[in-house]
Amino acid sequence: MGKVVMYSTVSVDGFIADENDQPGPLFDWLTGGDVPLDDSGFVKVSQVSYDHTRPYWDQIGVTIVGRHVFDLTDGWDGKPPSGVDHVVVVTHRPAPEGWDPGAPFHFVEGVEAAVARAQELAGDRVVEVAAGDVGGQVLAAGLVDEVRMDVAPVVLGSGKRFFGPVGGQHLLEDPEVVIRGDRVLHLIYRVRR
């Protein structure tokens, strides 16, 4: 079974978006480089960031998001982002009316069920959990193996927290990876068990 990774770009003060769900300058590193990170032609990073990020993206089999992110993105029009095979949506509501049942999106209730479904779908590939409320819940449930952060040199002051409203203390190991890119610091931590 593949590992479960909590991931996002984060401000130095711990936020993944402002109070209006806007990332603002957090994603400047994703558009300020000269090496295309995907086929869109829009996402371009430095060579250092490409060498770190592209191999990780290629390992992701399933992404887990909350219903809020799904709704904000309009479900990516039924096409999982960044070439991911499947998206598991944690929600208490059914799929939206008119949603294509053939789209590789799976609507489940609860983070434990979401991780189980994602691992089933991903096989030995990575299960990525979007940081924020759902990511914090998965961490609190003891289901996260690794935390990856792309830390942008931005102070948002308030907004949506990387770890959501996670309660209690959770220890991470010393960083396994620390890579300096242009306008970003890439960090990887294993979760201490």
From TrEMBL:
Give the matching InterPro entries: DHFR-like_dom_sf, RibDG_C
Q: Which Pfam families match?
A: RibD_C (PF01872)
Q: Where is the Bacterial bifunctional deaminase-reductase C-terminal domain?
A: 4-173
> Which GO biological process entries does UniProt record here?
riboflavin biosynthetic process
* Source species of the chain: Actinoplanes italicus
The protein depicted here goes by the name Dihydrofolate reductase
GO molecular function, a single term: 5-amino-6-(5-phosphoribosylamino)uracil reductase activity
